[in-house]
Amino acid sequence: MSLYYDLVPTGIPGLDEALGGGLIRGGRTYLISGETGTGKTLLSLSFLINGIYKYGEPGIYVSVDETYDQLMNGVRRFGWDLEALREQGYLEVLIPEMDIIEKIREKDPITIARSLVYTIADYAKSLEAQRLVIDPIAPLVTLEKDVQVLREYIRALVMGIEREVGVTTIITTEIPTGGQGNLEIWS
Fold first, then answer.
1. Structural domains in the chain?
2. Is-contact 51 59, C-beta < 8 A?
3. Higher pLDDT, 18 or 187
4. pLDDT(166) > 90
5. pLDDT value at 50 more than 80
6. Over the range 125-151, which residues count as b (16 or more CB within 10 Å of their CB) and which as e?
7. Average of pLDDT values for 34-51?
8. pLDDT at position 143, please?
9. What value does the CA radius of gyration of the chain take, rounded to a whole number of Å?
């Protein structure tokens, strides 16, 4: 018996073919990991931008490491005008408060994860988003807590996004230099 999944093409030449047509649509999360400079942000932004232009699928980009201005200046080098896409209602760019990391450290991580999920869900609903990127996840999960608390936080965040937001999600994370050095996609 073969299973059929509705696929979300990334629109990236060669990648969709390698993935058998794309990523599984809705309520699925994919982790893209690699060293600095391997193309994690480019791949994830291409996924969103191609979704808008090629497939009419609005998206949300959560920039954890960069300010809004840093992000906009960086993408202009590639000829992307994210501000125009925002104005047209196809894209939302969320920049978590800089003090969110401190809040996570001070408060119950599960409560913070749920709060993030509901915030993203509200934006996704108003935008009718079908794609989501969180780039990178590491600052949101580097807690000075024990491993079990960290696992529960990540589980609450990912499962909450899959359940409450229900979009195809890419999360990026950096691996330390000297690791495998490849760009990897995990489902």
1. 7-178 (3.40.50.300)
2. yes
3. 18
4. yes
5. yes
6. eebebbbbbbbbbeebbebebeeeeee
7. 94
8. 55
9. 16
Which one-letter DSSP state was computed for residue 165?
A: I
Cα(174)–Cα(185) distance, integer angstroms = 12
Can you tell me the distance from the alpha carbon of 12 to that of 34, in angstroms, rounded to the nearest whole number?
18
**Would the pTM count as exceeding 0.85?**
yes
Q: Are strands 7-8 and 91-94 parallel, antiparallel or unpaired?
A: unpaired
Q: How high is the pLDDT of residue 105?
A: 60
- Phi then psi for residue 172, to 5 deg, are -110, 155
Q: CA angle at residue 57 from 54 to 8, to 5 degrees?
A: 75
Q: Is the dihedral of CA 66, 28, 157, 91 positive or negative?
A: positive
Least confident of 51-60, 107-116, 122-131: 107-116
Q: What is the full DSSP assignment across 45-100? A: HHHHHHHHHHH---EEEEESSS-HHHHHHHHHTTT--HHHHHHTTSEEEE---TTH
Cβ pair 2, 153 in contact under 8 A:
no
